[in-house]
Design brief:
80 residues; mainly alpha; 4 helices; 32% helix; elongated
């Protein structure tokens, strides 16, 4: 390793400002719509996620992509 790079760091920055309004759009586009669909009808979780094959995914679903408290079922697409 060259001396001029010793101890250096790589910097990662978002191109966009992340806030509660645009986080659902910028973070894994499309997954917010799946979470919203499951929040409306929890039984859709089995059709829209890998739930039946899951071993352990733990979330109370209280802060899903800045969408708020959608519940643990609606948090599953984000965790997958």
């Amino acid at each position: 390793m060259a001396a001029e790079f010793a101890g250096s760091k790589i910097e990662i920055r978002s191109r966009y400002k992340l806030d509660k309004r645009n986080l659902p759009i910028l973070y894994t586009p499309g997954v917010a719509e799946i979470s919203k669909a499951i929040a409306k009808n929890r039984k859709r979780m089995y059709d829209l996620t890998w739930k039946r094959n899951s071993v352990a995914i733990v979330s109370d679903g209280s802060a899903v992509l800045g969408l708020g408290n959608l519940g643990p079922e609606a948090a599953l697409p984000v965790m997958e």
